[in-house]
Amino acid sequence: MNTLFIAVLVVYIVMGTVIAYASRRMNIKTTKDYIIAGGRVGSIVSFGTYAATTYSAFMMIGLVGLTYATGVGALGFELLYLLVTVILFSTIGYKIWELSRMNGWMTPSQMLSDLYSSRYLGMLSAFLYLFVMVPYTAAQIQGLTIIFNYAGLDPMVGTIISATITYIWIFMAGMWSIATTDLYQAILMLAGGLLFIAQLTLPGAVFSIDPVKALMSSGEKGFLGITSFWSPQVFLAYTIPWIFFAVTNPQVVIRLFIHRDEKTYKRSVSLFAFYGLLYTLIVVLAGLLARGFAENGLIPQNLRRDEVTIYLLNLFNPLIGSLIAVSIVAAAVSTTNSIIHAVASSIYREIRSHGDKGSLVILNLISLVLIALSSLLAYARITYIVDLSVMSSVYLLPLAPLTILGIYLNKYIGKYTRTAAIASIVVGVSIAGVSTIVNGGGRAFTSIYMGIPISLWVLLVSTTILLIGLLIDAYTRV
């Protein structure tokens, strides 16, 4: 057992718990305080919770491996995601924040229900979050076993630790404790990334080869250009679900409601953009260096994507490897508790759709049930949760046109649009579901029909159905 990792993990948990407990002084009296921190969060904390929630363990585990395997095209995919996310935050995101102040929105499902004057739509979107995000959360917890295996811990122990941290940091003060621990974890994530890249580039730290030579070796093998993996269809398949992440994923949308004022909102978006760019460059550079080391025979050339980071950590000084590993744990935990809180809050608001005097006991109980369910799925290692997690962003794609058109064309919404809104979700999710059943989660994500990736089919069909409803409403008014 890696005792250094255990020691660093304990320090991380203790410090995070102290921060979460200290956030209780923010005076949590109502469900609004608990769910969205009363809309009183400042720019530094809101930026930190954006960063930690958006960038999960996918970055240091998944994106490093994807870059190692497929080259610099992964950078284009991730940068396009960041660019569009910042644009969405700066346009429709700001509009959502303004309307949330006027309408008292606390959850994404409540927002959709209000925009379309349809409680059924709110309930359907909350159910969709449950269907998609709980398996995604389970996959996050299951993915942590990679890190806990590095430390020599039993998967059961790792699952219990992850679930316990997640629940305590939610329970302490809801969004306040989540957001403050997110800021702490965002700092750890960036520090871990910088430490990781330092180990790969400092002469003699791990490898004797010049990092520039390693990058040149990657380039000689074509990894600094567009490899065959990144066909236009595959690039679209990856980017389309992610570029709408900011308006489809409940854990991100709910954070549009937390800002104290306009200045706070705009500053937090700017800080997030800087953080996202820096973190992305670090992670992709690490992947390209890993490929260069592989081409020079210093590490294997045929590592599975998710094995690359762990293989490198095992070559590092044990203390440094443990610090980086715990930063990856922080990335997964921050995403997990944010998802659980957003989904539990949406379910709670749909159960208690009126008023703000509901018992926090009910909301905490829902969170506990969701964490327990996610942990059980993770420990059972049921295959379908991997499929759903890979496809989660595709299943949520119908919410993109619903949100964007709902915000900008709200005055044109009538009974036909309300019906079309429900139909667009049902049909869009059905398309994604059929593709998952036929191809499996991994292949469904990149499956192509008539030259068009499945994600684009979901988006086009859902948008078309919704537009038909809007056009019929507009025609009947004439």
Describe this structure in words.
This protein has helices at 3-22, 31-36, 43-54, 58-70, 73-103, 108-115, 119-150, 155-171, 175-201, 211-220, 232-243, 245-248, 250-253, 262-295, 308-313, 318-351, 360-380, 383-395, 399-408, 415-439, 441-446, 454-477, and strands at 448-449, 452-453. It is mainly α. The protein has one domain (3-389): Up-down Bundle (Sodium/glucose cotransporter). Helix 1 packs parallel to helix 8, helix 7 runs antiparallel to helix 16 and helix 20 runs antiparallel to helix 22 (454-477). It is globular, with a radius of gyration of 22 Å.
Chart the SSEs and their pairings.
Elements: H1 3-22, H2 31-36, H3 43-54, H4 58-70, H5 73-103, H6 108-115, H7 119-150, H8 155-171, H9 175-201, H10 211-220, H11 232-243, H12 245-248, H13 250-253, H14 262-295, H15 308-313, H16 318-351, H17 360-380, H18 383-395, H19 399-408, H20 415-439, H21 441-446, E1 448-449, E2 452-453, H22 454-477
Antiparallel strand pairs: 1-2
In short:
The protein is 77% helix and 1% strand.
- Spatial ordering of strands, largest sheet: 1-2
* CATH architecture assignment: Up-down Bundle
Sheet of most strands: 2 strands, antiparallel
- Number of structural units classed as domains: 1
If you consult CATH, what is the topology?
Sodium/glucose cotransporter
The geometry reads as globular
